[in-house]
Design brief:
single chain, mainly alpha, 2 helices, 81% helix
């Protein structure tokens, strides 16, 4: 149960960062927003895979 809560918190933080970057920086730039979102998700996935033991996995 602890791992599920940690992963859920991680995903919520990822969503908050993506939405925040979209609204603050790339509101009217579709391609830049898409590239930034893909980059944020890839970096987040890399951090998750690197530190998944600390999250309980």
């Amino acid at each position: 149960m602890r791992r599920q809560a940690a992963v859920a918190l991680y995903v919520l933080a990822l969503v908050a960062v993506v939405v925040g970057v979209d609204v603050l920086f790339f509101r009217h730039q579709v391609w830049a927003r898409l590239i930034a979102n893909v980059g944020i998700v890839l970096v987040s996935a890399a951090f998750y895979l690197r530190f998944r033991r600390a999250l309980g996995g």
